[in-house]
């Protein structure tokens, strides 16, 4: 049995179109056309209407570390609720473990430098971020547009560059099979060189979000 905050390779691969990136270092999955173009456009328009400067949890003194904007998607909006349900159906993860969905928006020159999505256990803010819902388990991310130039997501440890493509989903386990945090999930949202980039991020937690 998979724990409620966990996805599994079997669950993901049971959906047509999901394939696993061949790597012994991390569990990374890719699916094209997870969202239809009209769904992508509606979500990108939603992000465009309302966004704030993105923040980071483990501040390292670099003010240019994450220069994008973030949209807090309203959970009770029917489009947003449908997306959360669709992601939960794909992941097999109990939706109670999902953080509120966010959109991320990048203009030319904006990026999110190499980071991991889990919270650093030795960071002073760890308790603040993780005391209730626990650590992040899985990341599901959907590209809402095919960026004109730049904007790839680079997984440094496995030397894999994923190009933004409208409707494409990627998902990875932030931990190893034994539950330890996996540093090989380090990834860099590279600078957009032309146009805009819009993505959806869905993070799941060990315990219900509450
Ligand atoms: O935009 C991307 O390609 C990655 C975004 C990301 O890593 C994040 O928001 O944590
Ligand atoms: Fe990330």
From TrEMBL:
<protein>
    <submittedName>
        <fullName>Oxygenase</fullName>
    </submittedName>
</protein>
<dbReference type="GO" id="GO:0031418">
    <property type="term" value="F:L-ascorbic acid binding"/>
</dbReference>
<keyword id="KW-0479">Metal-binding</keyword>
<dbReference type="InterPro" id="IPR044862">
    <property type="entry name" value="Pro_4_hyd_alph_FE2OG_OXY"/>
</dbReference>
<dbReference type="InterPro" id="IPR006620">
    <property type="entry name" value="Pro_4_hyd_alph"/>
</dbReference>
<keyword id="KW-0847">Vitamin C</keyword>
<feature type="domain" description="Fe2OG dioxygenase">
    <location>
        <begin position="97"/>
        <end position="206"/>
    </location>
</feature>
<keyword id="KW-0560">Oxidoreductase</keyword>
<dbReference type="GO" id="GO:0051213">
    <property type="term" value="F:dioxygenase activity"/>
</dbReference>
<dbReference type="InterPro" id="IPR045054">
    <property type="entry name" value="P4HA-like"/>
</dbReference>
<dbReference type="Pfam" id="PF13640">
    <property type="entry name" value="2OG-FeII_Oxy_3"/>
</dbReference>
<dbReference type="GO" id="GO:0016705">
    <property type="term" value="F:oxidoreductase activity, acting on paired donors, with incorporation or reduction of molecular oxygen"/>
</dbReference>
<keyword id="KW-0223">Dioxygenase</keyword>
<dbReference type="InterPro" id="IPR005123">
    <property type="entry name" value="Oxoglu/Fe-dep_dioxygenase_dom"/>
</dbReference>
<keyword id="KW-0408">Iron</keyword>
<dbReference type="GO" id="GO:0005506">
    <property type="term" value="F:iron ion binding"/>
</dbReference>
């Amino acid at each position: 049995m998979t724990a409620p905050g966990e996805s599994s390779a079997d669950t993901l691969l049971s959906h047509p179109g999901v394939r696993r990136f061949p790597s012994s270092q991390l569990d990374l999955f890719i699916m094209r056309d997870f969202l239809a173009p009209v769904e992508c456009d509606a979500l990108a328009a939603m992000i465009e209407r309302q966004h704030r400067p993105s923040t980071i949890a483990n501040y390292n003194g670099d003010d240019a570390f994450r220069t994008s904007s973030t949209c807090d998607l309203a959970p009770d909006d029917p489009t947003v609720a449908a997306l959360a349900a669709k992601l939960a159906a794909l992941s097999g993860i109990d939706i109670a473990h999902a953080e509120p969905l966010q959109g991320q928006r990048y203009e030319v020159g904006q990026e999110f430098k190499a980071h991991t999505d889990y919270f650093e256990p030795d960071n002073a803010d760890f308790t603040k971020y993780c005391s209730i819902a626990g650590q992040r388990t899985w990341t599901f991310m959907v590209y809402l547009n095919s960026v004109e130039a730049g904007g790839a997501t680079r997984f440094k440890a496995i030397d894999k560059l994923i190009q933004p493509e409208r409707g494409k989903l990627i998902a990875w386990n932030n931990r190893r099979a034994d539950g330890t945090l996996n540093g090989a999930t380090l990834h860099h949202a590279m600078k957009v060189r032309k146009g805009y980039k819009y993505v959806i991020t869905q993070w799941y937690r060990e315990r219900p979000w509450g």
